[in-house]
Amino acid sequence: AQTVTQSQPEMSVQEAETVTLSCTYDTSENNYYLFWYKQPPSRQMILVIRQEAYKQQNATENRFSVNFQKAAKSFSLKISDSQLGDTAMYFCALNNAGNMLTFGGGTRLMVKP
Amino acid sequence: KAGVTQTPRYLIKTRGQQVTLSCSPISGHRSVSWYQQTPGQGLQFLFEYFSETQRNKGNFPGRFSGRQFSNSRSEMNVSTLELGDSALYLCASSSASATSPVEQYFGPGTRLTVT
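ok -> structure tokens follow
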């Protein structure tokens, strides 16, 4: 069985600053994908960034980047130049078989003006 | 392309009733997955359908069932509703073909309240 753990239930950051959200996971598979999803108050789950396990290079999408440490089974999300619209729940998720996403418990991020 | 759509968006039912939720995936996506989101249990996988066949199933009782049609639209059904079934039900679609994991795109969800 696979597990995903997010150890930070809540975080806050000042607008324009940088914040890092942590995620650790456990799986016995070699072929898997990791994702960060954002869920704003509207409840629509939005894909932020994805990382293929076989790729050593960390994924980057504009202000969002990840630090993927495969041996440590760690997958953190860095948000640079935080904006008010980044306020949301952030979920780390693992997909290693078909389409069964395993989610972490989420981190509630508040961006303060 | 239009995104994943779910109907209805909100639903109120009484204990013991049954309910059917609908999901239309992104055009061209053949895989549809369903998730239940509650404050206590978080996001939990219900089941996944691919080409009208249930391919994966989560740890939920038999009261939860689903199906997929030839146009990839999917429905999930919950029979004999319990108060604990109150949740946000999310549908996600993906372009996954065989067993390679890929990203999923989510719909806006159906908020089910059981009274």
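The interface with chain A takes residues 31, 33, 35, 42-43, 45, 48, 50, 55-56, 58, 88, 90, 92, 94, 96, 99-109, 111 of chain B (CB under 8 Å).
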